[in-house]
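Morning run. Coffee first, then this:
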Amino acid sequence: MVETKKTFCRFCHVFCGLEVDIEDNTIIAVRGDHDNPVSEGYTCPKGRAEVERINHPERVRQSQKNVDGQFQPIDTSTAIDEIGDKLRQIIDEHGPESVAVYVGCGGHRTASGGPWYIDKWLRSFNSHRLYTSMTIDSPSLIIAYDRLYGGPLPLTVFDIDHADSAMFVATNPIVSHQWSMPQSNPATRLKKALKRGMKMVVIDPRRSDIADKAHIHLQVKPGEDATLLACLLREIIDNDWYDKDYVANYVSGFDELCTALKPFDLSYTEQRTGCAAADITEAARIFATAKSGAAVSGTGLHMARHQNLATQLVMTFNALCGRLDRRGGMTHIPGTLAPRLAPAGERQPFPISLRTEHRSRVRDIQGIVGLFGYQEMPTNTLTDEILTAGKGQIKALIVNGGNPALVFSDTNTTIKALNKLDLLVVNDLFMSATAKHADYVMAIKHPFERVDIPMLADTFTPFSFQQYSEKMVEAEDDVIEEWEFFWRAAQRMGVDFSLPGVASDSNPSADDIIKGLSPTARIPLDEIKAASPSGQAYDNKITEVGGIIPDMICHDDRRLAAGHPEVISELAEVYAEQVFDNGSYTSQQDFEFRLITYRMREAYCTTGQNLPSLQKKRSYNPALINPDDMQRLALADGDLITIESGHGKIEAIAEANNTMGKGTVGLAHGWGDPADDRPVREKGSNVQYLIPRDIDYDKLTGLAQQSAIAVNISK
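And here it is:
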């Protein structure tokens, strides 16, 4: 007999509501839950493919131990005991900082075992070596928050349901489901907003799904976002389109910013970015003269050149146009897992510094506090921290829900580092590209085999919302939840790892862990559990405005630092750069194209490439090239090409695509297992071979330039 249960998807960070059909303890169908007040029945093909992921014949259903290069089954308890003993030995011999954890995208989608939990695990034995996917693609958000706001500011969601204008920069929320969109059911939300009369500006090198719907699409040359954004801001200022009262009351450094923007006039910007001057002016007018709206950016911007500056300039649109803490702009979501803010007029800035005391041994990069309160180190330094001898060298690495072999820059060095470790443990559903190099691969539960709440999205849904999911099915294999692996490993290591209400020598449940991670939640877990299985909306299903600006700005003067000295300096650096008509950045280069990375509908980072329904169209990530460039290079769809950067070269499959501008090539990341000897037509192309880890990296965050890469293409 078929039974239907309610849950939410954990394929990506959006957590859409699902209905799951179960027969004989087996998932047989997945579809959207129309009773979920956030997603309203929406799902994407990836979410519906969860039925394939949980039942996949290649899923790791028993933990594996690498013995002389061959993986052999090992029961979970024995594996944890052996791993715990080895970690204890490594700590005793090399110190606590010799142990590190990398948390990938998958590791963020478990409430009980996410990075907020693993940070506490590491700190229980005095290691600060937490690395996450955040510092691979978006550390510029933290730098921009720190510079503009002086610290964290609880304005997390664009109130698009009440906006008169929107500016989306290097993001395609219809596919990427961007957090601040808000993320849930993005196509429907956009359609309703546009029908209501909202005007939309999109800045993207590619004519993406959202760019197709824009009133103005500025198809900027990859890597020139900062130039274009500077010119747009200058146009807003020169035409008196900014909110003078808001700037006078809440903004500092306005005069300094105006001076720094002066060189970025329309003529210069048109020549450098490829965007028509008239379109630039019209885009500035549409956004700035509207009564409400917000500008938001995505990973396409955060991974490209001058990402810290460009990210802050996007936020500066909201500061100059009065779009922060106002209806239809960037607004506050109280969420459910933290205490409610004090009443307006009694609020104080969060006492949190976003740049930590810790610095990397390699390249001297300062750690940051991520979006969810835990401290992390720059991931682009991780491989060198493994390979560089001396005090603090990383000897043991646990990879939780991630795949460094596919997503770290400089693939050859990444593989060398993985093989150098004294201990590599990978927690994964599959024998991933990284797992193939592991000493132990821990078989973990599929999300449908565990209880959960969408903790990651607590302040990023369109209104305060929470949902508790029971297990859909009982796990029938020797599999373990991520949090339990770390808990039991700590006990074996003799480490005093505990949480509020959860003693280190106890055997807690996932519910106990969730409660221990949110001890001051304004909505207790028991109340969330008692609500509808489709989830519960709170606070009248609307975001909050008022009382954040200026009270919670973290700068001493309680003003938004639009003219922060680092911003002024970086604007001068951008203007001083040489400008080339081709793909080159310096006179020593001779590149014809710039390569951007993007998200494919058929995959999420490194997940989905092995699921039949998602790969029925193609089993690789094509190199998308403008048809005119294809014709000029005498290329046809399906041709095998070589893409070469200043660092490396790869093979890829060419595909004509008229959404790409001339001189731009697009390639999705997360494909091309280095250990897979199949041709790229079957496994895809790994863009990370093109990206150096230690050249053209960001000096503040350590981020490798992951997009807008200068390349050549040959047949």
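Residues 580-715 form a domain with the Barwin-like endoglucanases fold (CATH 2.40.40.20). Good start to the day.
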